[in-house]
C-alpha cells in the first residue's frame, strides 16, 4: 500500500505547483491546436469519443487522434492538480489550500464545459467560455506557484493608487482576452473540419474587422497602463520585485501585440494563431505575477529554514 509522507517539503509543493501551472497553460495551447487543425469534432460526442467507443477509432483518422489526445491531457492535468492538493493539505501551508482547491475544481468544470462544446457542435460562445475558464485557471495556478515559494502573504509594498492601477491592468487584460474570443468566434478557425461551410450568422455574427479593431484598441489601453505603471514605479523607487514584474509583463505584451498584428495582416496563418494563443497564456501568467508582486512575503526567512520549526509546533 502506498504510504504518503507525514508532510511535504516546501520545494516539493513548489515543484508540483509549477507543474500545475505549466499543465494548465499547455492544455490551452493543445486545445488551440485542436481548433486550428479542424479537429474540434474529431471525437463527435462526449464523454465517449464515438457512440460506441471511449477512444478514437481508425475511421476518425488524424482529427480523432488530435481531439482524443487533448482529452487525455485533461487526465494528466487532473493528476497533477490532485497531487498539488494532497501536498498542500499535508503541509503547514494553510494559506495555499483555497488556491489549490480552486485550480482542481476548475478541471471537472472545464471537462463538462468541453463536453457541452462538443455536443453543441462547437458553439462559439461555449468555445469562448472554455478558453476564458482556462485563462482563469492559468492565473490561479500561477499565483499558487508564486505564493508557494514564499512563507505566506505579507503587507502591501505599494500605496493604494498603485494597487488600483495593478487591478486596472488585470481588468484590461480580462477585457483583451474576452474580446479576443469574440474576434476568433467571428472569423475562421472555428475548430470544425467543415468550418469554411459555416455561415457567419451561425457563429457570433459580429463584423470581424470591427471587433478586431476594438480588440486592438483595448490592447493599446493595456500597454499604456503597463507603461504608466512601470514609469511610476521607477519614479518612486518602488520595490524591485514589482518593477521586474511590470517590465517583464510589458515585454510579453509588446511581443504578443507584434504577433497579433502580423497574423491579422497575413490572413491568420495557423502557426501564428497558435503562437498568439501561447502569448495569451503568458500574458495571463505575467499579469498574475504582477498582482502577486504587490504584496511582500510574510517573512524574510527562507522556506526550508522555517520547516523544522513549523513541524515541531504541529
Task: Please characterize this protein's 3D structure.
The chain is built from 9 helices and 2 strands; from the N terminus they run ααααβααααβα. The chain is 69% helix and 2% strand. Mean pLDDT is 84; it is low at 191-202 and 308-314. It has a two-stranded antiparallel sheet. The two termini are 26 Å apart. Helix 3 packs antiparallel against helix 4, helix 5 (160-185) runs antiparallel to helix 6 (208-235) and helix 6 (208-235) packs antiparallel against helix 7. With 314 residues, it is mostly helical. The protein has 2 domains: 1-152, no CATH class; 154-297, no CATH class.
Share in β-strands: under 5%
The computed structural class is: mainly alpha
Spans where pLDDT lies below 50 across 5 or more residues = 191-202, 308-314
Main sheet makeup: 2 strands, antiparallel
Measure the end-to-end span.
26 Å
Oligomer classification? single chain
* C-alpha geometry: flat
| Helix proportion range | 55-70%
Mean pLDDT across residues: 84
Based on the model shown, name its key terms.
314 residues; mainly alpha; 2 domains; two-stranded antiparallel ribbon; 9 helices; 2% strand; flat
